[in-house]
Write a structure and sequence with these properties.
The protein is of the alpha/beta class and about 240 residues long. It has nine helices and eight strands. About 40% of the residues lie in helices and about 20% in strands. Strands 1, 2, 3, 4, 5, 6, 7 and 8 form an eight-stranded mixed sheet that branches.
Length: about 240
């Protein structure tokens, strides 16, 4: 049986999320599957909140050495400036593709942290060497209760609900070992047990996507019929995060 929770708002240090649905989805696989839907009602405020959240570099305290802090500060600041530039090109009711993927990534990440109480890990591009165009997964988290690393991929498409872009990208990344390649940069954020479990195949994945006006029931039904989604059910956990954009 699929269990739906009522609409509610989550606040974190001034960041407001309106989560309108949270369901557990039954499947024929071993993975625990959850569906979350987010509605950013005020896009201008959402963009401002996201920038505020990204500029909070308190996560740098995870690093012990001065040279590590300096390196990751430089990487993060370059990415933040690039995101600011992309957001500046957006209007009150319309965002560019590049800005849209940041919005989907950060709202999905915040929802997973706040609603599921998973680990708060900064967006992958804040940790990476490239200021934009992350070559691996877009965001990460960890289920604290099960020591399961979550690898998240986000897609924003202007004309359609974007799960059909996010799910095959996840499968492609798995096939190309992108999840394993991400593990060293997660060392300061995830538990050693979770990292070893991920290396040994015990891991989870999050597909975050723009959702348009498609009903949640139709989204879930369509996703469950896809072979790429079915292939993820052999892992520990799958999170589906729809963002109304």
């Amino acid at each position: 049986m699929e269990i739906a929770k009522e609409c509610f708002e989550v606040r974190k240090e001034g960041f407001e999320l309106k989560i309108i649905e949270h369901r557990q989805i039954e499947t024929n696989g071993t993975a625990k599957v959850q569906f979350i839907r987010i509605d950013p009602e005020d896009l201008s405020m959402t963009l401002s909140d996201i920038l505020t959240a990204l500029m909070n570099l308190s996560w740098l305290s995870k690093f012990d050495e001065d040279y590590e802090i300096a390196a990751f500060t430089s990487r993060a600041n370059k990415t933040i400036e690039d995101i600011k530039d992309k957001f500046s090109k957006s209007e009150d009711d319309k965002i560019s593709k590049d800005a849209g993927e940041y919005v989907v990534s950060e709202l999905a990440r915040e929802a997973i942290v706040n609603q599921l109480h998973y680990l708060d890990i900064p967006l992958a591009e804040l940790l990476g060497k490239k200021k934009s165009g992350n070559p691996g997964f877009d965001f990460h988290s960890q289920n604290i209760d099960t020591d399961t690393v979550i690898f998240g991929e986000s897609k924003y498409v202007t004309t359609t609900t974007a799960y059909s872009s996010a799910l095959p990208q996840i499968v492609d990344f798995i096939d190309n070992g992108k999840d394993i390649e991400d593990l060293p940069e997660l060392k300061q954020f995830c538990s050693a047990a979770a990292l070893h479990r991920a290396y040994n195949g015990n891991k989870g994945f999050a597909a975050a996507f723009s959702a348009k006006r498609t009903s949640s029931d139709n989204i879930i039904s369509n996703i469950k019929s896809r072979s790429d989604f079915q292939s993820l059910l052999s892992y520990d956990e799958v999170l589906l995060v729809a963002v109304n954009l």
